[in-house]
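Running this now, will post back.
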Amino acid sequence: MKIIFVLAFAMVLSVMNSTMFNVALPALRADFDLSSSQVSWVVTSYIIIYAIGSVTYGKLADRYKLKNLLTFGLCLFAVGSVLGFISSSFWMVIVGRILQSAGASVIPASSMVIPIRYVSAEKRGRALGITSSGMALGTAVGPIVAGLITSFADWRYLFAISLLSLVTIPFFRKYLDKDQTHPSRIDLVGGVLLAGTVTLLLLAITYTSGLLSLLTIIVLAVFILYIRRAKQPFLDPAIFRNGAYTMTMIIACLVLIFNLCVPYLIPQLLSSVNGLTSFTTGLVMFPGALIAAIFGIIGGRIADSKGNSFLLGIAFSLQLLTYVLISLFTGGSYLIIMLLLVIGNTGLTFAQVGLANTVSRTLSGPQVGVGMGMYMMLSFISGAIGTTILGLILDQAHIGWSPSVLLGSGQPSVFSLIFLVFAIWILIIFAGCFRFLQRGERQS
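Update: finished.
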């Protein structure tokens, strides 16, 4: 289990790197005299490469040793960090972020593969709980660290923090010494088509472009036709003939959409409704993420002892309770939101652990790497779609009533109505899919 704690530390740095730069965007915009659309590429470029890299490294893990992939990825992560730290122009920042993302995406892929290969099924829930805790902790610490650094030093020092990931390389090389690979040809054409599909999809989501959406459909169709005919395709379509895997992946996308949507909504709620600053918002969100990180380990143990469906039942219940109460108390004290985030973030972490463990039990042999990589990529894409839709709603919504009015908040709030929809969403998934998860667990 030592390797799992090393992996969790690397996960903290990887996730921090994806969240810290949101805070630094105003400073970057001022330094380089950029427009909002131009500076957004600091985040957009990282997101695109991170999503593609998650499944790419998962595929490569079937052929190459994990310790070599992690060494390569973390060194590339460091190279991008150095380039960003010494950057004197905006193009150097973007190249640095792309290199960072291309390297850092080895971590989420490995966080799914290592527990399957190195931890027995009876203890796998605990291992996934530890890595999920690393993800939650990175999400919590990132904005606070970025707020402190940008308040007292240059934003370039955000790049320097990522160099800490280099200390994990000797441990990965020491503990990942029993890795088994499956020699196979790497399908470059299939990989390029998949990367093109994901890139176009995320760009279409980011810019809500009809043309990019059409191009996404066309490239996706070409990719599907190609992998159906290729002898050793980058993504074997046979994996989707595994009914348990496919159905669990659909459920995961529907549930894990909240992993990005809730952190996206809460800062805007606290800013526009409660009038908090960015740094104060980070402090309000920190306890929930920190406690969720601690409870992630407990959630893994619950999955091992009571089963994944039991843990997911708790996760759904905690999320349902949180969304209903936030919907009612929008406009009230921010301390109430801080308390509810403890419950909600714990539910999100439990869902991540339970679903990852459930998906892992549907895979075997050479399907493990790419299958878990697809799990990470699709859960991320579903979250990106969700946040884009929420952005459009927040920009255009005009409502006359919301649940918060029932408790006398004074005026209707679109945030209150959105969280009510979240509660209905999770209730429908719980009612419609929970029996399938229970049945699938008994069969596995």
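The mean pLDDT is 83. More later if anyone needs it.
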